[in-house]
Amino acid sequence: MKVAVFSTHPFDRRFFDAANAASGEAQSFTYLEARLDMQSAPLASGHQAICAFVNDQLDRPTLEILAGQGIRLLALRSAGFNHVDLRAAAELGLTVARVPAYSPDAIAEHTVAMILTLNRKIHKAYNRVREGNFALDGLLGFDLRGRTVGIVGTGKIGLNVARIMRGFDCTVIAHDPYPDEAGLAAIGGAYVDWPELLDRSDIISLHCPLTPGTRHLIDAAAIARMKPDVMLINTSRGGVVDTRSLIDGLKNGRIGYVGLDVYEEEEGLFFSDLSDQPIRDDVFARLLTFPNVLITGHQAFFTREALSGIAETTIANIAAFEADGAPLYPVTVQAG
Fold first, then answer.
1. What are the residue numbers of the active site?
2. Fewer CB atoms < 10 Å away: N or C end of the chain?
3. 8 A C-beta contact, residue 240 and residue 265
């Protein structure tokens, strides 16, 4: 199949070419730097499939253009699909496929790296030492042992974070509407209801998908229930956190540490070099002013193993669809 790959970076080309070669050069990729939206959708003309990333915009207007050009498959190189209008895709006869798991270790390990960095002020210490400042004032941390870590979402990533934090001898509690009782119990964690997780956790780590039910799950009311000086980590989807409420929580001292690998308005910011431009998003710019906030640019997935897995699964989805019209990992419209 001829596949138009949007939001392409050099690393995408490298790993997709390698995976395609390993599969016998079955697919023909056209690499496009443009982010997919209704303006760039005409670039897919002459292809049978598109490959999209997390910040591409697959709303109804964009999908109507793609369908009108003969596109039949939307191959997402991500686990999340909140950026796709699934109902419109179904009505237009477009098949949607995703990569359900590509390296839960990558994101879990990045999560723990953010916890350790914020706690021990490693980012601050690094900059100080490079400037010849070896003072310890302002770098005080705390022992992780005995702290309570609340895991929100216990899929593969959440359970991996739980496993790692149990290794630090932390108490692990979790909340998930679809609990994996056996999986969490094997690690030594326990499920609790949402209010109890907010009340008890010293560290809260978010690993849930973005759905209508989880949008702004972390809002003013949730933050008000949290323990003073709580650490909040989000490596899931930006929209799970109400950023303005988060800023209020930082200002009033309820939240002591924040680690974000995602941001609810990250389109147009992340995955680009904007070092020679002013930040036009005033809310994001305000976040950057807090000394207890650590932000990375949606890089938790960014390991060799994860990129290889994304490319291989995406190509397998395309090949399966080409063979019998059914990708290996389809996404369907949920009832209701």
1. 237, 266, 298
2. C
3. no
Condensed to tens digits (0 to 9), the pLDDT of residues 27-48 reads: 999 999 999 999 999 999 999 9
> Per-residue pLDDT averaged across 268-288, rounded?
94
Query: How much helix, strand and coil, in percent to the nearest 5, is found in the chain?
Result: 40, 15, 45
Q: What is the CA angle 296-299-304, rounded to 5?
A: 150
Q: Which two tokens stand for residue 65?
A: 């253009």
Strand partners, 230: 255
Run of H or E residues at 68: helix 60-68
Helix 104-120 with 156-167: angle, nearest 10 deg = 40
| % the chain with pLDDT above 70 | 99
Question: Distance between CA atoms of 186 and 174, rounded to whole angstroms?
Answer: 13
- Dist CA 264 CA 285 (whole Å): 13
Distance from first CA to last CA of the chain, Å, rounded?
Answer: 34
Pairing of strands 95-97, 330-331: antiparallel
Structure tokens that stand for 298 in this block? 């949606």
pLDDT computed for residue 334 by the predictor: 63
Which among 248, 203, 201, 239 has a CA at the least distance from the CA of 221? 248
DSSP 232: E
pLDDT digits (tens, 9 = 90+) for 191-201: 999 999 999 99
pLDDT on residue 102:
81
Q: What is the DSSP track for 246-282?
A: HHHHHHTTSEEEEEES--TT-TTTTTS--TTS----H
Q: E-strand spans in 116-249? A: 148-152, 171-175, 190-191, 203-206, 230-234
